[in-house]
Amino acid sequence: MWTRIKYFIQQYHPVVWWTVTATALTRLTQFMVMPFMALYMAAHTQASAGTIGLAIGMGAASSTAFGFLGGMLADKYGRKGMMVIALFFNALVMSGYANARTTWEFFVLSALNGLTRTLFNPASQAMLTDLSTVDQRKTVFAMRYWAINVGASVGPILGGYLGTVATGVTFYLAAGVSLLYALVTWIVFPESKPQPKASSQHQPFRFQSGLRLIFADRAFWIFMLGGLLVSIGYAQIDSTLPQFIARLVGSHAAVKMFAIVLTANAITVIFLQWPLMRLTNRLGTVRSMALGQFLFAIGFFLFGFSHNLATFIGAMLVITFGEIVEFPTSSQYMSILATESARGTYFGAYSLRQIGFLLGPWLGGLLLEMDGGKTLFTSIAILVALGIPMYTWSDTLRQKSRNRDTEANVQA
User: Fold this and answer.
1) Residue 360 domain-assigned?
2) Which of 107, 108, 150, 210 is surrounded by the most beta carbons within 10 Å?
3) pTM for this predicted structure
């Protein structure tokens, strides 16, 4: 058994294991503070509920707006430097939250927090792609996703226990972990940005060429649209789902029920991710993504007809199975789509799917007010299901493009 474990560990680059461990720790401390941000801001400012929501949304807005920038910087200047800079500024942002007492400070800090994610995530994902083989990438991104969920499941519990809302001391803990991660990255991590081959006529990466490459890649945009539809659906979990539950059982009972439903999601990911991955490995990348999208659609449809704790948990489990199958596989497919010289740009551009987390709550809120939960979640299920064929379409376009490039190289 130990021999098998040792062999499994040695298959992957040491940076992969550093990254998985650091991801679990940083997400643990991030989830100790971020779920309580609305309560923390309400306790330390006089801002209205709407203003608080807008301030928190600034993080997603800035992350989406500057997604291209972070990825292109990683391609031009390297992954390692961008990761260190992002982690350093994230530590400053976390320390800033601990001392923020005015509304405008929270707006600025939230926007900067989104910007640090924009700088870090594309660079980190590009580095994992650089340091792993094509066959390893699904497992690598699955380990990263699993580490995120470990942090997401434990962090809020510790945050509540340590009194994030009252004292804000956990913000300093999050800042310290980010600084430690930055130090480890600077000392231990290599620069993984692919170097030009000696025999190639290499042109240095330019922002204009990166943008042209992305905008001309139809396979990428079809794939991104499928991810956007999932984001619109997934955004309902934190926005309209608790409101729908409250309409059924009342606000007080809804808080407890919603917490249990979210806990079921986290526990399922932690314990069932690897068995489900083994079952779906034989499907291949594209069919796995399509299956995940199908499960998402079924789960959202079931939400509309749920009426008690058991049925809500059942619907959430279906969504969780879709999440386990689709999310890591999407990152793997992204690494296949991306050209070697523009991996950061591709991962950065894929952050545009986060627009769904801005549109989703607004669209879902309108549907909930207009005709209730059944109409809302049936509509969302149909919308998500529209993305199922997009993955096959994207892969067909990708293969056609690759064949054209191969023919052009042969003729040259």
Assistant:
1) yes
2) 210
3) 0.84
Q: Does 8 reside within a domain? A: no
Say which amino acid occupies 52: I
The pLDDT assigned to 410 comes to 41
Which of 299-303, 304-308, 343-347 bottoms out in mean pLDDT, i.e. has the lowest? 343-347
155 is a domain residue: yes
Tens-place pLDDT, residues 2-43: 778 888 888 999 999 999 999 999 999 998 888 778 778 888
If we measure between CA atoms, which residue out of 90, 110, 99 comes closest to residue 44? 99
Positive/negative CA dihedral, 294, 300, 302, 304: negative
Among the listed residues 21, 44, 41, the one whose alpha carbon sits nearest the alpha carbon of residue 33: 41
Has residue 167 been placed in a domain? yes
Q: Do 243 and 189 fall within a single domain?
A: no
pLDDT 10s digits, 359-410: 888 888 889 988 889 999 999 999 999 999 999 999 999 998 876 655 444 4
Q: Are residues 345 and 265 in the same domain?
A: yes
Instruction: Note whether 77 and 93 are within 8 A (CB).
Output: no
The whole-number pLDDT of residue 405 equals 58
Domain count of the chain? 2
Residue closest to 66 by CA, chosen among 124, 108, 115: 115
Three-class HEC string of the chain: CHHHHHHHHHHCCHHHHHHHHHHHHHHHHHHHHHHHHHHHHHHHCCCCHHHHHHHHHHHHHHHHHCHHHHHHHHHHHCHHHHHHHHHHHHHHHHHHHHHCCCHHHHHHHHHHHHHHHHHHHHHHHHHHHHCCCCCCHHHHHHHHHHHHHHHHHHHHHHHHHHCHHHHCHHHHHHHHHHHHHHHHHHHHCCCCCCCCCCCCCCCCCCHHHHHHHHHHCHHHHHHHHHHHHHHHHHHHHCCHHHHHHHHHHCHHHHHHHHHHHHHHHHHHHHHHHHHHHHHHHHHCHHHHHHHHHHHHHHHHHHHHCCCCHHHHHHHHHHHHHHHHHHHHHHHHHHHHHCCHHHHHHHHHHHHHHHHHHHHHHHHHHHHHHHHHHHHHHHHHHHHHHCCHHHHHHHHHHHHHHHHHHHHHHHHC
